[in-house]
Amino acid sequence: MNNLATRVVEYMRSKRYLLFNGPQHVNIIYIEGLNANGTLNSDAPNCFNDRRLVLQTRDGIPQIIGNWEATTEPGSHYTYSPMNPLGAARIKFGQYTSWAVGLHGRDRHEALVQVANVSVHRDFNKDFLRTGDRITTGLYGINQHWGYDLGINNISTASAGCLVGRSRGGHREFMNFVKSDVRYKKDPSFIFTTTIIPGDDLAKLFPGDSL
């Protein structure tokens, strides 16, 4: 995973994104359409086929210390029956400092809760794509929570546009890493930064070289 970590860091630097290299600082990253080993997949709709990563610099070397199945997109349920009349929310690729530790869902599990604006594409035509969709910015409850241990090929109602780790166990591991950040330990209201990357764009930065 170190090879993938290095490439993610290079990509983030090419975009001039914030990168936290301090001791006990975590970087939260989602990569759309990527497998655990860093290869691209078809990014089919309604599947947990994205990755949730936690990256940390240890002894000067970037390392992926957490790598879980996830989705950065809403499932079929909320794409076809959106909560917003403008269409289901698909987060706009980029970087946002917008989440704090809190509680999500009817089962009230610990999660990263949106506390500042993010931008989303509104899938009004319900084609599971961002292309040509209207972009809006605001507080939409785009939280980072668990996916209720649903199957890989069925997001169901687990996401209406949130950043969702598929399993409860993996999400608990994720939150443990997040809360190990020294900045959070000093201030439990600390607002975390998260980066959302398209897998195919990451691959384009390294033509002819496998991730």
Question: Can you describe what's shown?
Answer:
This protein has helices spanning 2-14, 76-80, 168-179, 182-186, 199-204; strands at residues 27-32, 50-58, 61-71, 88-91, 94-104, 109-114, 118-123, 134-138, 144-146, 163-165, 192-198. The chain is α+β, with helices and mostly antiparallel strands and 211 residues long. It has one domain. A hairpin with a 2-residue loop joins β2 and β3 (61-71). The longest helix has 13 residues, at 2-14.
Which keywords apply here?
globular; 11 strands; alpha+beta
Task: Summarize this structure briefly.
The chain has 211 residues and is an alpha+beta fold. 19% of the residues lie in helices and 34% in strands. The protein has one domain (2-204).
Strand order of the largest sheet: 6-5-11-1-2-3-10-9
List unreliable stretches of 5+ residues: none
Order of helices and strands: HEEEHEEEEEEEHHEH
Tally of helical runs:
5
Outline: globular
| Terminus-to-terminus distance | 10 Å
What Rg do the Cα atoms give?
16 Å
Helix content: 10-25%
Biggest beta-sheet profile: 8 strands, mixed
Question: Roughly what fraction of the amino acids lie in strands?
Answer: 25-35%
Class by SSE composition: alpha+beta
What's the number of extended β-strand segments? 11
Q: What is the number of independent domains? A: 1
Mean pLDDT comes to 95
